[in-house]
């Protein structure tokens, strides 16, 4: 379920790592627009390259650690990277206050679709690593 070319007219059709939810993403200028049911999340588009570079620097499997914005992210996870003050953007990649979390849920499947990472697809506790 990964058809599309990443435009608004033909978004990437993705599934969360466990395969439990479908969503779409597309690039809109400097933003990634993530549509999950009736909810729209927006992330900085540079998250694709930044997350991949960080995963390369980790050199091994990294837990996804997906969490809502209001919940803390576990140290060393993709989610923690997506909101860390020492990441390349100095904080959140998410752009819509109240919906800035879930970076670890929605970005890794996109990187997998783009051929940048290997992603586990277990029922829970999934990990990702750079290719």
Strand order of the largest sheet: 1-2-3-4
Spatial separation of the terminal alpha carbons: 21 Å
For the record, the count of structural domains works out to 1
Query: How many β-strand stretches?
Result: 7
H/E topology pattern: EEEEHEHHEE
Structural class: alpha+beta
Q: How many helical elements?
A: 3
Oligomer: single chain
Provide an overview of this structure.
The chain has 131 residues and is of the alpha+beta class. It has one domain (12-130). The protein has three helices and seven strands; from the N terminus they run ββββαβααββ. Strands 1-2-3-4 form a four-stranded antiparallel beta sheet, with helices on one face. A hairpin with a 2-residue loop joins strand 3 (31-36) and strand 4 (39-44). The longest helix is centred in the middle third of the chain and has 12 residues, at 47-58.
What's the structural blueprint in terms of helices and strands?
Elements: E1 12-15, E2 22-28, E3 31-36, E4 39-44, H1 47-58, E5 62-63, H2 78-81, H3 103-113, E6 117-119, E7 127-130
Antiparallel strand pairs: 1-2, 2-3, 3-4, 5-7, 6-7
Short overview:
The chain is of the alpha+beta class and 131 residues long. The protein has three helices and seven strands; from the N terminus they run E-E-E-E-H-E-H-H-E-E.
